[in-house]
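Researcher: I'd like a candidate sequence for this fold, 408 residues long. If you have to choose between options at a position, lean toward the conservative one.
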């Protein structure tokens, strides 16, 4: 543990009962006990999944993200803002729910019809304490739908299995208390790559690049996606010359439109340089789930990527050409990557990007940072340093092409 790292997960030794439930349930063996029985978190191994926090029977584990009080307050505030009320709570793992939404699409695919709802996005479904489920139902929520990653694709190994067991037990208790046994429903869903067969030319690049061997060759036809292997990392999308295979929520054109249509608005604020941040959805929580707070006082647009392997170098160059003054990429350290396969793909992409930026004299306007949510304040420090660096450079003009596109 670095001396500079202010850990976001701690154990209150005065409250700890030494039951060792946290140690037994941690998917990363990050919780250890010494010869005296004292339990501590090894910060370097901790992945901040929150499973230990939700399992502690005496609330001895403290976290800075998604605490019981924060979750409960969020639901109450969201329901208060809803004009006609919302009686359904949808719990979404960030692995199956990009920041762009699509909750209704996912539920529809699962055959569920849900009216007005409150969507609560979490790093892992396994971090939801059972008490929170009861609290939500007591607050006026009538239905809870937990959209969990399929068990083999849980980014935190055991998170969905643990959550499923808890919610099944909760349903049994709710039935005894007089609640509808269907008040809590569990949906298994994992995002996969999807082909546009009309655009595919059968070049096979996607098959070659897929680090999980999830794409299979088909004679005289579009390759087949083996959904039992596909993890939705987006590496295939990056190499497709016709954008014929994409991961929903991270489509190439949609990403281009999001930053291309935002540059004029950011420039108009005149509160400093316009910065685009591509953030891996597992490397930094606050910047994606609460951007207004993370980027307060700065002209920063954050766009989520499912993994560093799917960060298309084209977007970085194009964003700078559109008029962004700087682009930063925030990715997980190698040991923390939730999709370990295919690291060489990310390294090659980075090498290509840096070479292009150097040739265009734009290298000083891009920075890549490794970040983990385990240390409080690290992201803000890196953002401040990059923003200060970009502030000292001349401002870039909005590209004529970008202006024309927005005025259509």
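Model: Candidate sequence:
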């Amino acid at each position: 543990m670095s001396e500079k790292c202010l850990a976001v997960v701690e154990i209150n030794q005065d409250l700890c009962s030494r039951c060792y439930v946290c140690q037994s349930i941690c998917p990363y063996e990050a919780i250890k006990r010494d010869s005296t029985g004292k339990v501590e978190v090894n910060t370097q191994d901790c992945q901040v999944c929150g499973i230990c926090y939700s399992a502690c029977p005496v609330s001895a584990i403290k976290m800075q993200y998604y605490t019981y009080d924060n979750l409960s307050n969020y639901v109450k505030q969201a329901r208060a803002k809803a004009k006609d009320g919302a009686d359904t709570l949808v719990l979404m793992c960030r692995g199956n729910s990009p920041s762009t939404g699509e909750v209704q699409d996912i539920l529809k695919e699962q055959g569920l019809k849900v009216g007005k709802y409150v969507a609560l996005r979490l790093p892992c479904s396994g971090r939801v304490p059972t008490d929170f489920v009861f609290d939500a139902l007591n607050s006026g929520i009538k239905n809870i739908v937990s959209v969990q990653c399929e068990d083999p694709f849980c980014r935190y190994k055991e998170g969905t299995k643990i959550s499923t067991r808890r919610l099944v037990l909760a349903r049994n208790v709710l039935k005894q208390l007089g609640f509808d046994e269907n008040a809590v429903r569990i949906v298994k869903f994992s995002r996969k790559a999807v082909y546009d067969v009309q655009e595919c030319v059968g070049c096979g690049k996607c098959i070659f690049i897929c680090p999980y061997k999830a794409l299979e060759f088909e004679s005289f036809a579009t390759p087949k996606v083996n959904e039992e292997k596909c993890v939705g990392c987006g590496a295939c999308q990056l190499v497709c010359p016709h954008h014929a295979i994409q991961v929903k929520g991270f489509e190439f054109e949609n990403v281009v439109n999001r930053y291309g249509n935002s540059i004029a608005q950011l420039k108009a604020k005149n509160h400093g340089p316009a910065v685009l941040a591509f953030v891996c959805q597992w490397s930094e929580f606050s910047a994606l789930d609460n951007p207004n707070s993370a980027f307060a006082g700065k002209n920063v647009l954050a766009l989520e990527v499912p993994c560093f392997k799917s960060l298309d170098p084209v977007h970085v160059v194009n964003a700078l050409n559109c008029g962004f003054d700087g682009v930063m990429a925030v990715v997980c350290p190698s040991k923390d990557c939730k999709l370990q396969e295919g690291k060489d793909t990310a390294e090659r992409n980075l090498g290509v990007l840096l070479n292009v930026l150097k040739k265009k004299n734009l290298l000083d306007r891009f920075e890549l940072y490794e970040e983990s949510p385990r240390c409080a304040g690290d992201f803000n420090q890196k953002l401040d340093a990059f923003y200060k660096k970009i502030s000292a450079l001349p401002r870039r003009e909005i590209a004529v092409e970008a202006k024309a596109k927005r005025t259509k």
